[in-house]
Design a protein that fits this description.
Helix content of chain A: 55-70%
Organism (chains A, B): Pseudonocardia zijingensis
Strand order of the largest sheet of chain A: 1-3-2
Oligomer: homodimer
Largest interface: A-B, 31 and 29 residues
Distance between the termini of chain A: 55 Å
Number of helices of chain A: 9
Structural class of chain A: mainly alpha
InterPro entries (chains A, B): GntR_C, TF_FadR/GntR_C, Tscrpt_reg_HTH_GntR, WH-like_DNA-bd_sf, WH_DNA-bd_sf
CATH superfamily of the largest domain in chain A: GntR ligand-binding domain-like
Radius of gyration of chain A: 19 Å
Pfam families (chains A, B): FCD, GntR
Keywords (chains A, B): DNA-binding, Transcription, Transcription regulation
Protein name (chains A, B): GntR family transcriptional regulator
Chain lengths: 228, 228
DNA sequence: CGGGCAAGATTGTCTGACAGCCTGACTGTC
DNA sequence: GACAGTCAGGCTGTCAGACAATCTTGCCCG
């Protein structure tokens, strides 16, 4: 621990495997809606567009399929996963459960500087509540980064990240509800207040409440928005 | 519904993709400890042993890596994942949270015949508590199958199944503790009693307690058993 | 006895190819 | 004119072979 910049993530890691780069690229394209749910992902097209070979493309699609972002139909190929409202509700339910667990762990284990960082992250969320959606997302990502760092469980972080990514598949209409960003900020403030008070149960409950509200907002928007 | 055997699982689907067969094969080999944690999985050896081509092997390894059963080190290849005690504890914690959620859903949604099936599954667990480990596992698998069918969430089932599989990576010493099967059966009986009483909170709490006990047993065994 | 170097082993990736299945259009018949 | 059967094309599933990059291992030399 003498030099933190040394071995930030083990020595080398200069050139990430090509496959990892492509996975990240395609995943971001899906989460950024440049690839829309239901859209077919034809292997040959990806080969041409990305300039990589077909075996690599296939490995990438398999990986994203296990993550739940693409759905592979045998003999038919891959499509960007289109969530059913039921699936989305289930995913939110699991998020509520696991993020409450993360918050509880945070209260029990996080160092004081982690608590400070979490407070700062909520401050930032409140500040950006009326900014562009992209800035809001960035602030929220920062919040979760601090939360999971402080709660200190790699498997938990990995699983929740996967759930969040899948939920994002229907994010199109969830952020743009008037007043919702302010509500969300207030709910997260309640979480942090409980964290600062050292009340794990209250913090977990507040966190679960936040996710439930977010789910309600997103799902009602889904039902009333599109007749499909 | 005139003829149930008709379209049992849609007409064809006779020949599952080769890749899926191989994934199942390797996964079962890992969970059955025919491939031990830490063991290297050399692509060429798998090619020869399984009689399939290298691209297929690579897709299989990538898929199992995302599932967490194998760990891929860049430029070094794949090894069967070896859990650290901390990781195992975290996985049990997540299982407690999510299986409690599943039980709660079961209380709220399951049909009466599902409840009956769950009772029957616990009966079977009690009956096999002193039988061979394989029969115990089979009874437990049956219990979970009923539980998740009744709680009706595919994403939840999928996620928990993944967690259970990863936990099983250290199952070697967890079942053979004297008296533990009887304890586990009693704990699951408590879950089912609460389910029959329609008390979702009690059932979820009982379920979480069961997982916590299982975790304690498995982890203490891990710490005292091997100096590694 | 330690360190550097070379050979072997293994992964990462590409090219090319072929069989099987699904989709969609075309054509022939009623 | 509408419907059904057939055929061509597209795409996936899988294989074989090959080559560069990189890591490991063991040997040789200082």
């Amino acid at each position: 621990m003498a030099d933190p910049t040394w071995s930030a993530d083990q020595v080398g890691r200069v050139a990430a495997p090509l496959r990892e780069q492509v996975v990240t690229l395609v995943r971001d394209a899906i989460l950024g809606f440049r690839l829309q749910p239901g859209q077919r992902l034809v292997e040959r097209e990806l080969v041409e567009q990305l300039g990589i070979s077909r075996p690599t493309v296939r490995e990438v699609l398999r990986q994203l399929a296990v993550e739940g972002l693409v759905t592979v139909v045998p003999q038919r190929g891959a499509v960007v996963t289109a969530l059913t409202p039921d699936d989305a509700a289930d995913l939110y339910e699991m998020r509520a459960s696991l993020e409450a667990l993360a918050v509880r762990r945070f209260v029990q284990r996080a160092a004081p500087e982690h608590v400070e960082a979490l407070v700062a992250a909520v401050d930032e969320i409140e500040r950006t509540a009326r900014s562009a959606p992209q800035e809001q997302l960035q602030a929220k990502d920062r919040f979760y980064e601090v939360l999971f760092t402080g709660s200190g469980s790699a498997p938990l972080q990995q699983t929740v990240a996967g759930l969040q990514a899948r939920v994002r598949l229907l994010r199109a209409t969830s952020l743009s509800v008037p007043g919702r960003p302010e509500e969300a900020a207030a709910e997260l403030r309640a979480v942090v207040d409980a964290v600062q008070a050292g009340d794990a149960d209250a913090a977990a409950a507040a966190c679960a409440r936040h996710i439930e509200n977010a789910a309600r907002t997103a799902l009602s928007r889904l039902n009333t928005g599109e007749p499909a």
